[in-house]
Amino acid sequence: MEKTSFAQGEWLKNNARSTTLPFNRILVSPYQRALETFEQVNLAFDSALQPHLEIWEGITPYGSAELVIDYLSVQEKESVDSVLLISHLPLVGEIVAELYGKRNPISFYPATIAQIGWQDGKGEIMSYSYPPEML
């Protein structure tokens, strides 16, 4: 798992749109696997993500996608324009479906990464990456 998590971090780092730290907020589930994933992704970013970390009970596996969208809307109003979400299945698929408009064009497997542009209540999938073993 550590190798996959670190690779996720490298992918995020290499595909970030700007040369500065691309995340204003990092939301991580309190479950052990999500915390371990954050640790590895943070290492890929030379430990620069820690100050932006928020551990949130709302993104556990059977959390509410609607609640997450509401929370992201609040973040947007507070000028948070880029959020990294480290969560679990099935919730991440449900969140993407909500952001994208109820139909999810991405199959989610463990370690799937999706970059979604969200503006005016509409989501657009910018890029995504599957773990190598799923290809």
TrEMBL record:
The keyword Translocase does not apply. InterPro entries: His_Pase_superF_clade-1, His_PPase_superfam, SixA. Its EC number is 3.1.3.-. Keywords: Hydrolase. It comes from the Bacteria. GO terms for cellular component: cytoplasm. GO terms for molecular function: protein histidine phosphatase activity. NCBIfam families: sixA. This is Phosphohistidine phosphatase SixA. It comes from Rodentibacter pneumotropicus. The gene is sixA.
